[in-house]
Design brief:
Elements lengths: L2 E12 L2 E12 L3 E5 L6 H9 L6 E6 L5 E4 L11 H6 L4 H5 L2 H10 L14 H14 L4 E5 L7 H13 L7 E5 L3 H7 L2 E6 L2 E6 L2 H32 L15 H8 L8 H12 L4 E10 L2 E11 L4 E5 L6 H8 L7 E6 L5 E4 L14 H6 L5 E3 L2 E3 L1 H7 L4 H4 L8 H14 L4 E5 L7 H12 L4 E5 L3 H7 L2 E6 L2 E4 L3 H11 L12 H6 L9 H8 L9 H31 L8 H32 L2
Parallel strand pairs: 3-7, 3-8, 5-6, 6-7, 12-18, 12-19, 14-17, 17-18
Antiparallel strand pairs: 1-2, 1-4, 8-9, 10-11, 10-13, 15-16, 19-20
Length: 617
């Protein structure tokens, strides 16, 4: 692979903080890199450094001559007086962009619902963001850098973007760097991860799931190493200079190791126990919609909806922006009165809402976190045991220094975590979360998920974060055409239903790019799903059938050899117990044999990964 760009011993030092220190890394053709790390650790600084927007205080940024770099930053440079049309494709003739299948797919996938000749200054922040993303994707780039590209995108648009990025370049061409907290997106698109932490950047092979497994293994090795160090110190104290030399091991990620790491992990939550506790707190009825219709003027948002949420249910709601998800929640909360029909709410129901805007924290002003928490003496039942406010703070990542901060000075992620904790301390039995993952980094999302796993009540979640949705809810519903539809197949089923309805609604937004294509401008624009079906070859890498069969046969053979060798290693390790512990020569030979077999296993695993890569698995 050809080198495209990188940095060498780079230092980025701000007045109050050193963000990156002595960082050396490179980006090559064909790489798809996901960048993760805690908020404030330097993810955005890193891609801005590589893009040339931030100058290093020491070291240098290297770029191959002629490499074209496109960057989607956290803010845009769009002209308020320009149209959507000009901002995305400039003054290019219509036959050029309307006749280009790639550009048509981008326009319909990202800005299809926006007024094509509408003014940028009249758009919302989320709509401007989508215009900026479409502008970038329309261009031709060797390296594409995206900072939080899934913000303001619904589930369908996120799915389209993932498919587009996977198909944008050939397997060995182009490079992608993406900063996002959307874990499904990272797993779907990226083949390498960079973790930014403690002023350095640490690479990991594989997507987000592989990265998590490697982190678990790294932390396990660190614990083992620390235990060995402590044992060594105790021996040194007892025998002074006679302490045994500690052996070090180099951690390496293997498929078998990953399986062993999760073999003893308990279920995420005890559904039966949580249901039992929820029924005890709520009774048998929570919320029932009976023939509910909600209209605003001539627009019908909810149409004859019959739907119910029971005690202990964990419900996820998906839908396009503007489909009626917020109206559904407000009707449930009785903030919106149905035009017809009625909503029945159980007598013991106590709602709590975590909104996108965190309105409840505004009144706290400059109160410090410790002062706010000091007003609560309540203990909350989570995971079957009582949790104090201090326990919750710790679980949600607040340090002692954070507790002395005024609420108004907290970061967006800290405010969201604090708001969630205050809601739980009020002991509701029905929790409604509207985009709770906003502003949270990957580690904090995991902490929130862990917290919700032990919460014994009814949960209603609205989010575009597919990973979060599938992780914390048991049933998913879609708001589509005024109806609430159950999704037994989860988000995948929703995407299929939404694609199927595209043609029926092509003319619903006059003046939009989708309507423009539907009315016959240029060739018919394919949907994200249809284009991917048409353009993707029958097998992932377009291999002839005979070569494909040979590869599959070889990969199965390699798996059998790995399995056989693993058994031999286990037998050899067990046989060492039968050797006289004083016979060092015999022990050495046995260990040498085991090491040789492990080396062979490493080679087989590497061969397996290469074969799987050829097959696109």
């Amino acid at each position: 692979m050809a080198f495209l760009l990188g940095c060498e011993k780079a230092l980025v030092d701000y007045p109050t903080k050193t963000v990156l220190d002595d960082v050396s890394l490179g980006v090559e053709d064909g790489e798809r890199i996901g960048i993760v790390g805690r908020n404030g650790d330097g993810k955005s600084t890193l891609i801005n450094l590589l893009a040339g927007r931030v100058e290093p205080d020491e070291g240098r940024v290297i770029r191959t001559n002629g490499v074209r770099v496109g960057l989607l930053g956290q803010t845009d440079d769009l002209d308020d007086d320009a149209t959507v049309h000009f901002s995305v494709v400039g003054d290019a003739p219509e036959y050029e962009w309307a006749g280009d299948a790639r550009i048509r797919s981008i326009l319909t996938g990202i800005v299809g619902d926006l007024p094509w000749e509408g003014r940028i200054g009249d758009l919302s922040g989320g709509q401007r963001r989508r215009v900026d993303l479409a502008r970038l994707l329309v261009g031709e780039w060797d390296v594409l850098m995206l900072d939080e590209p899934t913000n303001h995108l619904d589930v369908r648009a996120i799915n389209w973007l993932a498919q587009h990025l996977k198909e944008r370049w050939r397997a060995d061409k182009g490079a992608l760097l993406v900063v996002t907290h959307d874990r499904w997106f990272l797993d779907e698109v990226c083949t390498t991860m960079w973790e930014v932490h403690d002023r350095r950047v640490e690479p990991f092979e594989g997507g987000f799931s592989a990265y998590i497994m490697q982190r678990v293994e790294r932390e396990r090795v660190a614990r083992v190493t620390e235990e060995r160090r402590q044992n060594k110190l105790r021996r040194e104290l007892a025998w002074l200079s006679r302490g045994a030399r500690a052996r070090s091991t180099k951690p390496k990620f293997h498929v078998k190791a990953a399986q062993e790491l999760i073999s003893d992990v308990p279920p995420l939550r005890n559904d039966l126990e949580l249901k039992r506790m929820a029924v005890a707190r709520l009774g048998k009825q929570v919320v029932d919609f009976n023939g509910v219709t909600v209209r605003f003027g001539n627009r019908t948002v909810l149409d004859d909806v019959n739907w119910g949420v029971g005690p202990g249910d964990r419900v996820g709601i998906v839908g396009e922006n503007g489909a009626g998800k917020t109206t559904l929640l407000n009707t449930m909360l009785r903030r919106v009165k149905p035009t017809s029909g009625y909503v029945k709410v159980g007598k013991t129901v106590r709602f709590a809402v975590l909104s996108q805007h965190l309105d409840g924290l505004t009144k706290l002003g400059s109160d410090r976190v410790r002062q706010v928490i000091g007003r609560y003496s309540t203990r909350v039942m989570l995971d079957g045991k009582e949790q104090t406010p201090a326990d919750l703070l710790e679980r949600l990542g607040f340090t002692k220094a954070d507790q002395n901060e005024p609420v108004c000075d907290l970061s967006g992620g800290q405010k969201r975590r604090l708001a969630l904790m205050l809601i739980l301390l009020d002991e509701p039995n029905v929790l409604i979360l509207d985009e709770p993952g906003n502003d949270l980094d990957v580690d904090m999302l995991a902490a929130v998920e862990d917290l919700l796993d032990g919460w014994p009540g009814t949960l209603v979640l609205v989010t575009h974060d597919r990973y979060l949705m599938e992780r914390v809810t048991d049933d998913q519903y879609a708001v589509m055409d005024g109806k609430v539809r159950h999704l037994p197949g989860g988000v995948d089923e929703y995407l299929k239903l939404a694609d199927a309805e595209d043609a029926a609604h092509a003319h619903d937004a006059p003046g939009s790019i989708a309507a423009l294509f539907a009315d016959g401008a240029g060739a018919q624009a394919p949907s994200a799903s249809s284009s991917s079906q048409r353009e993707t070859p029958e097998n992932p890498n377009g291999l002839p059938n005979n070569e494909l069969r040979a590869l599959r046969k070889e990969i199965h053979s390699t798996e059998r050899k790995m399995h056989t060798l693993e058994g031999k290693i286990e037998d050899a390790q067990q046989a060492m117990y039968d050797i006289d512990p004083t016979d060092f020569e015999a022990l050495g030979k046995a260990q040498q044999k085991i090491d040789q077999m492990k080396s062979e296993l490493d080679e087989l695993e590497n061969a397996w990964f290469e074969l799987a890569d050829k097959l696109g698995e």
